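Why do we bother with holo predictions? Because pocket geometry can differ from the apo form. Keep that in mind while you read this record for arginine.
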Amino acid sequence: MTDKQASATVPTGVHPEQTDKAWSGRFSEPVSNLVQRYTASVSFDQRMAQVDIRGSLAHARMLARQAIITAQDLAEIEHGMATIEAEIGRGEFRWNLADEDVHLNIEKRLTALIGDAGKRLHTGRSRNDQVATDIRLWLREAIDNIDRLLSGYQRALLDLAERHADTPLPGFTHLQVAQPVTFGHHLLAYVEMAGRDRGRLADCRRRMNRLPLGAAALAGTSFPIDRESVARELGFDGVCENSLDAVSDRDFAIEFTAAASLLMMHVSRFSEELILWMSPRFGFIDLADRYCTGSSIMPQKKNPDVPELARGKTGRVYGHLMGLLTLMKGQPLAYNKDNQEDKEPLFDTADTLIDTLRIFAELVPGITVRPEAMRDALGQGHATATDLADYLVKRGLPFRDAHEAVARAVRRAEEKGCDLARLSLPELQTYSSLIEADVYSVLTVEGSLAARNHIGGTAPEQVRAAIARVRTRL
Ligand code: ARG
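The structure, written out:
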């Protein structure tokens, strides 16, 4: 490929013209256009502009406090950065491919605006500790955002669960009718999963929240810096203890994508259930039209595209986790340019989570529940067979014998094409003489639900108590 072809594929919004490199003095010829495009990250890392400026300002203030730069330099840097932030905010900032990344683009502009003071900003710092700081600041904000969205999603699930604390639903194992549960109880399972997802993200945030700045390129700096004050200003809980580790590891990005993968796995399971429940074979729920689309050929179709896409997007988040793990596995200490490849997977993971959770927090309140269909399905799978076995056990029969007696009664019901609960009393009594007329109170769905009245059980009373507990936690 010629350089001409290479420059034809410059990313949109980035300008291709040549400028003097921040590191050009060492080199006898400029990089080729193709290499320039290959090595540049500005097309995607410009998303970190705000945190990059915040980090630079904290660094500059520390340099001034330590008398490494003058108060006058600092004032000019602060003024220049305010101009740059405004330019970026108005979409007027000119991002140059030749200036590689967000860091050099901003520094170049700063120097154009304020001269020598701009050139002093990078004292005691390297892009290696700068980017390690930026990405942590960026991810910290993303995690906080995702946590808020997760709590909104939990609230939406809780509200629906509260409305259906008494609504019976067939609980499945192996996707076969197993025992009655309440729809509220079923939804609360997803509230618990989301709670653990939040815990994992908080855990990742806590470990990540240490300041790399001061590590400089890899070994620290000869200037009398004060890292703790920078950490405080930027909201870090402390500083990274080892300079080599600070600039080079991206384990926090891997932790984040691992937590994100689990989160998406949970959303994907819920999606799969929504898709099944919405199929006419189940007919348990309907999704509002605004979360579905039609078919271009089959006029009758209403497809659950949103949950299907959430299920599908889970795959790309897993992919990002694998990508980042692989990115890191062969890297010797300390910083290597490989690390530049951490950003796109990280950004895409956060974007996917944020969009998915925003949609789900809206979609859940728009679910129409069809309790009749749930109840119909419950009447077809002998869902209270375990209750009959428990009934016999409470009358003295060993559980294994009770299980066998009920299994034979179920077989009879199957032959007759009816539910176990529909067998007559004399018929039931042929399987055990311990059965009396009161058996029907345990063979009903309501009896079965109410009987599971302990913490973690499906009884409506327990579902309401569980909802109240989660609400106080939220
Ligand atoms: N754009 C680079 C990255 O994302 C910044 C650090 C570059 N450091 C270097 N020594 N080339 O990793």
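Residues 41, 45, 101, 127-128, 131, 335, 337, 339-340 surround arginine (CB under 6 Å).
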